[in-house]
């Protein structure tokens, strides 16, 4: 398994699966979720609505993941996962790690060879970037997965640097 860290826009990345930092409603939102629905088109929202009506009437739980079509995106699937909102009072690291491992499990079931992740929970959900990057890298490295290539696609320079720092810490 190889891990790549790059700066860019997730919606422009070619990979079998693109991971969406969604919310439990699965009905879209701002940030990367907004970009995925905007670029991917209405087919994705339609698939999300069907999932709500069938498998997740009360919403997708935090830390779980589910796949839909990728619509017009340059991918085969979008895997939606719900990150935890950062809390100064409660350690929710295990839930953030679960987003990565459950997305990889879904990707493995689908037969995806490559997957691209954003920095889940580090935008609206307010997770500090470096701890989130450490958790993301540790989770994917420790996962028993059939996915061959994992790409972290970081939107801003600060996110990108946080992932670079976390990767350097691991290798030192
Ligand atoms: N490509 C890659 N990363 C992006 C992109 C993009 N096009 N756009 C933003 N990011 P966020 P969250 C980065 O807020 O914190 C939504 O409304 C962004 O800079 O998208 O998990 C959902 O519906 C940040 O580093 O997700 C939920 O309600 C990272 O992606 C809520 O936000 C995650 O930021 C989820 O919040």
Automatic annotation (TrEMBL):
Pfam families: Macro (PF01661)
Protein name, entry field: O-acetyl-ADP-ribose deacetylase (Regulator of RNase III)
Annotated SMART domains: A1pp
Organism of origin: Microlunatus parietis
Residue span(s) of domain Macro: 1-171
Stretches assigned to coiled coil: none
InterPro entries: Macro_dom, Macro_dom-like
UniProt xrefs under SUPFAM superfamilies: Macro domain-like
């Amino acid at each position: 398994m190889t891990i790549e860290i790059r700066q860019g826009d997730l919606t422009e990345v070619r990979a079998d699966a693109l991971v969406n930092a969604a919310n439990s409603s699965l009905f879209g939102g701002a940030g990367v979720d907004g970009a995925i629905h905007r670029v991917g088109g209405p087919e994705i929202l339609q698939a999300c609505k069907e999932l709500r009506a069938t498998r997740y009437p009360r919403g997708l739980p935090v830390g779980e993941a589910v796949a839909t079509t990728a619509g017009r995106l340059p991918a085969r699937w979008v895997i939606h996962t719900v990150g935890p909102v950062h809390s100064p009072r409660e350690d929710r690291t295990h839930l953030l790690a679960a987003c990565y491992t459950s997305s990889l499990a879904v990707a493995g079931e689908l037969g995806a060879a490559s997957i691209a992740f954003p920095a889940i929970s580090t935008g609206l959900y307010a997770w500090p970037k470096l701890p989130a990057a450490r958790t993301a890298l540790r989770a994917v490295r420790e996962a028993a997965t059939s996915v061959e290539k994992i790409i972290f696609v970081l939107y801003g320079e600060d996110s990108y640097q946080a992932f670079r720092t976390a990767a350097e810490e691991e290798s030192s």
